[in-house]
């Protein structure tokens, strides 16, 4: 039995916990007041009854947080207010536009509206692309268990963005990732960037992306097109396919669509395709299970606790990518340190001393050290993380902990970051990566990774 009190003589008790599972000789006391001193004692029980209470070592402690170390203010203090003000301005403009559009729609006669709807039902299906010719396209994957939505002609819903494209669409693709967070605002965005103002090639391409997205929404009868897959699918014919994925809760009815088993769709396409030169559509169907697995795993959330994450980047001419695992692509490579996500003032002070020392051996972590348990947990986590990422222990001698802050992700999840040496944090183009991880890892574009974090922890 674990008892705690704000008084040295344990009168009155502040609380107690009885542990009946002795496989784990550890317990977490919750609901304490920061800065208040608490005394703890432990008693054991057998058939003869309770034994004498033994005082914990140290005998007392005060709950604290890493921010108490230097009394720092939150890093984002004041910024949230500025962002909220900007958001209110955008909302006001958006609401003004929506009201204006609604008034236009109300002046339209019902007969005209019905005729447009009928025309939409009978003729809009022809606007889906059946075969890919050199160009830029959007494909939509709506799935429920082993079924996915196809057109009435047994095709994946695809529309063309442009029949030509630049040699690199990286920046346009990354812009489209942001667009995928605001599907309901497509009409407003198209109105905000009229074609007459789009003199540059970049703006024209993005206007075409907006138009193609709106077309897909109209054809399917829904705004929500899902999350964007982390990379476009390309083939040797010059086709580029951007894929959005959405898992639905049941087999809804969509305009111009029906449900088909994925395996059946794959077998039909296999009989028609040319395996020597697969198109982007062939590649999509071949890898569909991997794509769906990525989508499902990118929605998983970590259980509460303190984690050690490994930050490794690589850069190219036009983007930066982050190393993640295929099992949890929305989180850095990581291992769990402990269940309690809080870093105390004493633990953070020890980390600061560790970062300022030449070696870990020079820092006090003896049995009498108040953070001995934390040191042991962190040491085990570092070794496990290095093993997971296939980094030999001797190559990690110059690795360091990020000491500016603890990353508090929300939902009682916190991260400490393990960083390579300064020159190796980001591998530049043409530079050999000194650390080659095992299979089961991905390099995600930074923007995709950030959106995954936001979606998971907000």
TrEMBL record:
Any one GO CC term of the record: spindle
Residue runs in coiled coils: none
Biological process terms in GO annotation: establishment of mitotic spindle orientation; regulation of establishment of bipolar cell polarity
CDD domains: FN3
Domain Fibronectin type-III: residue ranges: 1-64
Family annotation (InterPro entries): ANKFN1 (IPR039269), FN3_dom (IPR003961), FN3_sf (IPR036116), Ig-like_fold (IPR013783)
Name of this protein: Fibronectin type-III domain-containing protein
């Amino acid at each position: 039995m674990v008892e705690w009190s704000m008084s040295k003589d344990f009168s009155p008790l502040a609380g107690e916990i009885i542990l009946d599972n002795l496989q784990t000789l550890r317990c977490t006391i919750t609901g304490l007041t920061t800065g208040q001193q608490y005394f703890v004692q432990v008693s054991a029980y057998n058939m003869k009854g309770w034994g004498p209470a033994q005082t914990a070592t140290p005998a007392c402690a005060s709950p604290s947080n890493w921010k108490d170390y230097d009394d720092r203010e939150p890093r984002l203090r004041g910024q949230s207010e500025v962002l909220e003000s900007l958001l209110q301005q955008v909302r006001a403009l958006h609401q003004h536009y929506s009201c204006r559009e609604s008034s236009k729609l109300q002046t339209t006669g019902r007969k005209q509206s019905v005729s447009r709807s009928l025309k939409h039902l009978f003729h809009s299906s022809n606007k889906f692309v059946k075969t890919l010719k050199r160009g830029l396209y959007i494909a939509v994957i709506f799935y429920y268990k082993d079924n996915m939505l196809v057109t009435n002609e047994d095709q994946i819903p695809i529309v063309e963005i442009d029949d030509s494209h630049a040699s690199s669409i990286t920046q346009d693709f990354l812009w489209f990732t942001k667009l995928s967070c605001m599907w309901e605002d497509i009409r407003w965005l198209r109105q905000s960037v009229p074609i007459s103002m789009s003199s540059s090639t970049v703006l024209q391409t993005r206007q075409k992306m907006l138009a193609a997205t709106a077309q897909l929404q109209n054809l399917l009868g829904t705004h929500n097109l899902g999350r964007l897959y982390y990379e476009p699918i390309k083939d040797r014919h010059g086709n580029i396919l951007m894929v959005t994925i959405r898992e639905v809760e049941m087999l809804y009815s969509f305009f111009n669509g029906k449900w088909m088993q994925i395996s059946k769709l794959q077998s039909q396409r296999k009989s028609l395709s040319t395996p020597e030169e697969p198109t982007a559509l062939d590649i999509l169907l071949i890898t569909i299970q991997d794509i769906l697995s990525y989508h499902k795993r990118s929605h998983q959330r970590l259980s509460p606790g303190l984690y050690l994450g490994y930050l490794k980047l690589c850069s190219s001419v036009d983007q930066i990518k982050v190393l993640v695992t295929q099992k949890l692509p929305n989180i850095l490579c990581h291992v769990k340190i402990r269940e309690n996500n809080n870093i105390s003032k004493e633990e953070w002070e020890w980390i600061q001393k560790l970062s300022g020392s030449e070696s870990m051996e020079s820092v006090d972590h003896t049995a009498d050290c108040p953070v001995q348990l934390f040191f042991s947990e962190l040491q085990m986590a570092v070794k496990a993380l290095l093993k997971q990422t296939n980094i030999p222990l001797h190559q990690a001698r110059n690795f360091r902990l990020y000491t500016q802050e603890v990353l508090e992700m929300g939902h009682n999840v916190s991260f400490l970051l393990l960083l390579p040496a300064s020159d190796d944090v980001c591998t530049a183009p043409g530079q050999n990566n000194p650390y080659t991880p095992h299979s089961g890892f991905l390099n995600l574009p930074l923007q995709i990774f950030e959106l995954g974090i936001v979606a998971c922890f907000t």
